[in-house]
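User: You have something folded?
Assistant:
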Amino acid sequence: MPLSEHEQRLLEEMERNLYHNDADFVATVGNNRGKPNYTLIVIGILGAVLGVGVTVFGIILRQPGIGIVGFIIMFAGALVAIAPARGSGIPREPSADERASAPSRSGSRSGQTGFMDRINERWEKRQDGQDDRS
């Protein structure tokens, strides 16, 4: 179900306030995906294939211990292959939009408090049946 115009405006206001009040958080969490580490992907795939081989070998020999070790190797290889790329520890530079919307740290809490108060008032009005459509 699509959002109404009022809900879209509220969502956009919430996004602006998030960027405004938590620019550092947005800079570290948003779009901070590094390039995939193909070496780890290949090592993980090879580990998973090796684990499958060891598991099959354990089944052929009817040795559950070898099969369990093979499964652990296979699982570890899959985890290495699909693990997200680890950053170099250097935070990325915020974009021009993020820098423009980033406030000075003085007074950012008061803006957040006012926003949360408005949201709480709207919620209470909605719960009381007095839908606020302004």
Remarks:
- Helices lie at 5-21, 23-29, 38-61, 64-82, 96-101, 108-128.
- The chain has a mean pLDDT of 77.
- The chain has six helices and no strands.
